[in-house]
Design brief:
Elements (H helix, E strand, L loop, with lengths): L12 H11 L6 H11 L6 E3 H18 L10 H10 L5 H12 L3 H4 L2 E2 L2 E2 L4 E3 L1 H4 L1 E4 L1 H7 L4 H20 L10 E3 L4 E5 L5 E6 H9 L20 E5 L19 E5 H5 L8 E2 L2 H15 L5 H8 L3 H18 L3 E2 L2 H4 L4
Parallel strand pairs: 11-12
Antiparallel strand pairs: 1-5, 2-3, 4-5, 6-7, 7-8, 9-10
Helix pairs in contact: 1-9, 2-3, 2-9, 3-4, 3-5, 4-5, 9-10, 12-13
Amino acid sequence: MSKDLFVDRNPTLETSWRSIILLGRNVASYKFALAKSLLEIDTKKTEIEIEKLAVPFAKNICEHLLKKEKQITSSSSKFLDACKKFNNSEISEEELKTTTVRLGFVNVIDAFHNVSNEETTRFFTDNRTTNKSIILTDNFYRLKEKDVYGNLKNEAESRWNLWETAISLKINPFLLEVMNDKDKGCLYVENDKKKRQNITSSRDALNGYQKGKCFYCYKPISIEQGRENSCDVDHFFPHLLKDFGFFEVDQVWNLVLSCQHCNRGHGGKFEKIPYVEYLYSLNKRNNFYIESHHPLRETIINQTGNSQGERRDFLQKMFDVSVGHIPVKWGPNELYGEPL
């Protein structure tokens, strides 16, 4: 093939799924509840009746209502009212199911595959008119066979937590500052009374943009702890720099997911500075947060700059400062060879 020709690439199934969760149209939390329900439900049968889907879907909503009362951007919802009544033991599970079948899926099934006003890869088709059901596509079953499948439920939960926090806090979203707790491995915000609210696991929040791959060596990682390939949350510019007064390194823009070998194995990164090539990847990742209008968008802007040029200059300055204090650069042995 001529090197002058561009090659068209189709997105992977996991990329299409993540685009729905990260970028898909949503004015309510129903999309996250539907995604989690599909990942949790017994999918041995291709056709799933709406009645069977109703209870896990509604219970996902009920669970989040216990943590955050605001789950929609509009002022009221009869479906959410029913979920609240169930939480208060005012209606039975059967009554909750009946209401969910009637009201819970009105828009979410239609809009689930809508990303940027276009339809992405379909993981189910709507069969409600014919048989009050949805039919899982081959794409969904192929997705289940992927190594990253186990991460997807955690990613959906994390995205949901970030979204509901953004609409629940009664402050200007431009003032929303998401912070990182290194010791507890979670992201948190402070409300107007300076009261801390934990949002989500750092691993779960970051993984969707790394697509289940180590930031440095690109090998598959898992955000579930206790597995052989469980990942670490790594400070791109080492946490050690806080000793020199650079507290910015503990912010979201500086966090990436690394395999344990790259982070702390033989020949690992530890407190070294990644090669400058990785600075391009970090800059690209942070810009992607911003361009996707993720709830972390404003946090990244506030921390690194309003424009792409400002953000690039910020990272270059951090790189220069870091090398000035820790003059040891690093890359994975399998990509860069053993250090001399």
